[in-house]
């Protein structure tokens, strides 16, 4: 392990000296009332922060390019990869029981590793494109902070650790999980050949909707897993189309395709259709695994959240697109909460059914 770290760090230039200031440093200075302590002088220790971005900044300098390469400072994508896994694990739990916390933790580690591996592959394919886009020009490969060879070694380490996680599952799940690797590798190429790379991303990012169930049950119950998987794909088409509108001007210049460029001013109509398909698929999955009132309440809340996203979206403002994209973590958490509460509700329903039988 020490040799691997030495190889990764060797020759990696230091990060750019200019860094974004902390939010606390950007606040305006106002007159302090009497008896209040004056603000800390310049050069005093920064206040503790546990945000992902601050943790990356606090890491040793030679490691920071690798942490940024795997987007550890931007955890929104990791959440969007992880949440479909939690849905599937939650739906597979026994009636009246909480989800398997060991499996949730295992999939959490896997999501961090596989999202990092996917970002590394993406940046290796796109390093020349990234140099031409303002938002991506500072990525480690595009900026020259690390070499292609170093990123390849780092990718091998991430995939090796992800394989260790996968080997903790049953044989069915190992084969099923390995089958997704082709999607992970080829997705970054899709923006060169089709206006629907977001669809391929959806097929990739929601594989956990299949894998979570099989990890608990030993195989997939397709009447539940396929509607859940389809719902996740539709969800990805919603949030990643919104995300793609951030870069549409640059994409036109460099010749990259996306659903944002395909839909143009009809984007909200398409997003509404995808959202409706997602909600219907979630209802089908819920009916096929006998979900209860809290689940359908959560599905309704998800629908309301998506409707608000789409109605208030301004596709011509990149900052608004990012805000709407990042808010989709709330969508996933709402649904997971509904799944857990709906599964606990099943215990109450079963008692209500058993009592009349005992009184006969």
What does this protein look like?
There is one protein chain. The chain has 360 residues and is mainly alpha-helical. It is built from 19 helices and no strands. It has helices at residues 2-9, 23-26, 52-58, 64-69, 76-92, 101-130, 140-143, 148-166, 171-178, 181-193, 197-205, 208-217, 222-244, 248-254, 259-263, 267-288, 293-312, 318-326, 328-358. The protein is globular, with a radius of gyration of 23 Å. Mean pLDDT is 85; it is low at 1-48 and 353-360.
Output the keywords.
disordered C terminus, disordered N terminus, 70% helix, globular, 360 residues, mainly alpha, 19 helices
Chart the SSEs and their pairings.
Blueprint: H1 2-9, H2 23-26, H3 52-58, H4 64-69, H5 76-92, H6 101-130, H7 140-143, H8 148-166, H9 171-178, H10 181-193, H11 197-205, H12 208-217, H13 222-244, H14 248-254, H15 259-263, H16 267-288, H17 293-312, H18 318-326, H19 328-358
Helix pairs in contact: 1-8, 5-6, 5-12, 5-13, 5-19, 6-8, 6-10, 9-12, 10-11, 11-13, 12-13, 13-16, 13-18, 16-17, 17-19
């Amino acid at each position: 392990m020490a040799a691997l770290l030495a190889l990764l760090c060797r020759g990696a230039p230091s990060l750019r000296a200019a860094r974004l200031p902390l939010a606390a440093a950007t606040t305006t200075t106002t007159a302090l009332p009497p008896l209040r302590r004056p603000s800390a002088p310049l050069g005093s220790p920064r206040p503790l922060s546990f945000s992902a971005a601050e943790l990356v900044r606090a890491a040793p300098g030679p490691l920071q390019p690798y942490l940024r390469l795997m987007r550890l400072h931007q955890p929104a994508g990791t959440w969007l990869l992880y949440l479909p896994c939690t849905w599937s694990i939650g739906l597979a739990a026994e009636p009246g029981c909480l989800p398997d916390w060991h499996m949730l933790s295992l999939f959490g580690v896997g999501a961090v590793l596989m999202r990092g591996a996917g970002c590394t592959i993406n940046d290796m394919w796109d390093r020349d494109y990234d140099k031409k886009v303002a938002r991506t020009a500072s990525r480690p490969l595009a900026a020259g902070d690390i070499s292609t060879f170093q990123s390849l070694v780092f990718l091998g380490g991430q995939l090796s650790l992800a394989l260790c996680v996968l080997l903790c599952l049953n044989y069915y799940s190992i084969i099923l999980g390995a089958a997704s690797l082709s999607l992970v590798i080829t997705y970054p190429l899709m923006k060169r050949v089709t206006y629907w790379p977001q669809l391929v991303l959806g097929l990739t990012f929601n594989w956990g909707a299949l894998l979570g169930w099989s990890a608990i049950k030993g195989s997939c119950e397709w009447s539940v897993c396929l509607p859940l998987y389809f719902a996740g794909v539709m969800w990805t088409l919603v949030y990643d189309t919104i995300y793609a509108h951030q870069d549409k001007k640059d994409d036109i210049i460099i010749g990259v395709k996306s659903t944002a460029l395909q839909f143009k001013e009809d984007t909200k109509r398409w997003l509404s259709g995808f959202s409706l398909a997602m909600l219907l698929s979630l209802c089908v999955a819920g009916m096929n695994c006998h979900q209860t009132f809290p689940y359908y309440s959560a599905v309704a809340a998800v629908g309301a959240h998506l409707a608000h996203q789409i109605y208030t979206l301004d596709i011509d403002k990149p900052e608004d697109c990012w805000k709407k994209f990042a808010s989709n973590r709330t969508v996933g958490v709402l649904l997971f909460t509904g799944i857990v509460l709906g599964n606990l509700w099943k215990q109450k329903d079963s008692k209500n059914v058993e009592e009349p039988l005992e009184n006969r």
